[in-house]
Specification:
- The protein is mostly helical.
- The protein has one domain.
- The chain contains 3 helices and no strands.
- The N and C termini lie far apart (86 Å).
- About 7% of the residues have low confidence.
Length: 122
């Protein structure tokens, strides 16, 4: 009886020890994975900032003016009925494909820049 009790305690301690080793291993693997994901997040944030800078550069007025000059577009004031009234305006509007929704460089839709109205709760 005494030997079986000692064997049972030894087996229980061995099982607890193996469980602790397994727990420590899982914890180390999780920590390693967290480190990898944080490095990936830093890299993606850097890429996002680079893309935002590219968008800002591409939208800059001086670049747009250069593109207009390069393409020799007539961007004078619209006629009395708007750009649709002139033959050139109809051609440009007919040739233009529909615009897809604007996406932020880091994902997500960009809000339209329509008129801003402020509501007061008074």
């Amino acid at each position: 009886m005494r030997v079986s009790r000692i064997l049972f305690l030894f087996a229980a301690m061995a099982a607890i020890g193996m469980g602790l080793v397994r727990l420590r291993t899982d914890t180390q693997q999780a920590g390693y994975r967290i480190g990898q994901l944080q490095a990936q997040q830093r890299e993606l944030n850097r890429q996002c900032l680079d893309l935002q800078l590219d968008v800002a550069r591409l939208r800059s007025p001086s670049r747009l003016e250069d593109q207009v000059a390069k393409l020799a577009l007539d961007l004078g004031p619209p006629g009395p009925l708007g750009p649709e009234a002139s033959p050139a305006g109809r051609q440009v509007l007919a040739a233009a494909p529909p615009k897809p929704p604007k996406l932020h460089a880091c994902g997500g839709l960009i809000a339209s820049r329509g008129p801003v109205t402020h509501r007061t709760g008074r």
